[in-house]
Design goal:
Length: 461
């Protein structure tokens, strides 16, 4: 099989970006901090940010309680987030109707990375941040990772560092600014503002922050559970310095840009998905105890309560619910050459939490154990192929999902090269070039969070 050449000619995105980003991506052991210093800094931050996360019954959650009418789990302030019950009817996937809990967090948070030049090489200001749901405590986060409740200090905590550069960015400093969704199976209409902003020489790194080259971030992205989900989604919005200038090469794509857009619109029009709030107490197939809200068959996930103490967060101690998946996911992206141009196989997915019915997801996105009880015909498309080809994957890394809402949620993220004649099995799938995917990421609600992670990983290869 011919290896895929991902070193495409660059496409200018903001002034001087081609040479600057290429230099930053090439600087894997240098810049402000050497790689050895970077790893030592991460180890030091893990020790400094040691936190206690203890499972507690719901009655012990400070400030949280179940609504006596609906059974929904809410915070007393009415802010942060809540856990609701939904009834879903959908023509996507093997099950036509089901009920489930879902997280509702209507406020829009900020996920932002600050960029600053050091000797002409862009560096990203990354944060070592502990989250209660992380499997290993501290992971590499964006410069700012904050919900509106956090940065407006509903909890009475400290000010979010560097927030002013994203709330009021200097003229001409914004590189990317777009609303992007999060997991449509676990969040109802959740969006965050994904931002990349250039800052000046006056911006220094506090002790929990470090200026890293893009190459160093790519190096860490190849390791299990180091770069968190919020960093990965923002990184995917960074202009891709490898793309052809002016979109050259799009004429060699298997499908023209207008055809891809028309396909997305058609899938949104043709799919039927009906979402009805029903209250957590009336969520069929689920039960509630003192310690959990769980599925009667032990599948999918459960909602649990935790008590957290940490000396390095905006508040030193708090309680909250977390969604805990039962098993580890498999998220795979197939890549092949078409007339010398790399293409990735995306699926138009309809998920109950999406604002616009359908977003483009990876080739495979599932938890295999959740389908084990179903017949072979109802197994996720391409799952068997992904598992069979996993030994030859170009990227195989275990990555955590958002640790502020999910407890030990992980997926095996895979990038798998397939033959040039590998087919798309149905109209739910399309082969799309990285250049086309980069263009779609300029707009909201087109590419889901799992596909954004795999695009960031693809650029890191």
């Amino acid at each position: 099989m011919t290896a895929i050449d991902l070193e495409l000619p660059p496409r200018a995105a903001w002034p001087g970006s081609v040479a600057r980003l290429a230099a930053s991506a090439a600087a894997v052991d240098g810049g402000v901090m050497s790689t050895a210093e970077l790893l030592a800094w991460l180890d030091d931050r893990r020790r400094a940010q040691a936190q206690r996360v203890e499972r507690v019954p719901f009655a012990a959650l400070k400030g949280w309680g179940f609504d006596p009418r609906s059974g929904d789990l809410r915070h007393a302030s009415g802010r942060f987030f809540s856990v609701h019950g939904l009834r879903i009817r959908s023509d996507f996937g093997p099950v036509a109707e089901w009920c489930q809990p879902i997280i509702r967090q209507p406020e829009i948070g900020i996920l932002g990375i600050a960029v600053r030049d050091f000797d002409g090489v862009p560096h990203l200001l990354m944060q070592a941040k502990s989250e209660p749901g992380n499997v290993n405590g501290v992971q590499l986060s964006p410069t700012v990772q904050a919900t509106k409740s956090n940065y407006t200090r509903v909890h009475g905590g400290s000010v979010v560092p560097y927030l002013e550069h994203f709330l009021r960015p200097a003229p001409g400093s914004v590189i990317s600014d777009v609303l992007q969704s999060e997991q449509g199976a676990w969040f109802l209409h959740k969006r965050n503002r994904n931002m990349i902003v250039e800052v000046g020489q006056e911006v220094e790194a506090d002790e929990d922050f470090a200026w890293l080259t893009l190459g160093q971030v790519h190096l860490l992205l190849r390791q299990d559970n180091i770069v968190n989900m919020d960093s990965r989604t923002v990184l995917s919005c960074l202009p891709d310095w490898r793309q052809p200038e002016g979109g050259a090469g799009w004429d060699r794509a298997l499908h023209a840009d207008r055809e891809i857009r028309s396909w997305i619109t058609r899938r949104r029009t043709e799919h039927e998905i009906e979402v009805t709030p029903i209250g957590l107490d009336r969520t069929e197939g689920w039960y509630r105890t003192e310690d959990e809200v769980a599925h009667e068959k032990g599948l999918y996930f459960r909602v649990v309560g935790v008590d957290v103490s940490s000396g390095r967060r905006e508040v030193p101690a708090w309680s909250q619910p977390l969604l805990e998946p039962r098993h580890t996911g498999v998220t795979a992206l197939f890549v092949r050459q078409v007339d010398g141009v790399p293409h990735v196989l995306l699926r138009a997915r309809a998920e109950p939490g999406f604002l616009d019915v359908v977003e483009l997801g990876p080739t495979v996105q599932c938890v295999p154990e959740n389908y084990a009880h179903l017949p072979e015909a109802d197994q996720p498309p391409y799952l068997a192929e992904a598992l069979a080809r996993r030994g030859d994957a170009r990227y195989d890394v275990l990555l955590s999902e958002e640790g502020g809402r999910f407890l030990h949620a992980q997926s095996h993220y895979l990038i798998i090269e397939v033959p040039s004649d590998f087919p798309a099995v149905s109209d739910e799938f399309r082969w799309v070039t990285p250049c086309q995917l980069d263009e779609l990421l300029r707009y909201s609600h087109h590419v889901n969070v799992q596909a954004r992670t795999l695009l960031a990983a693809l650029r890191a290869l």
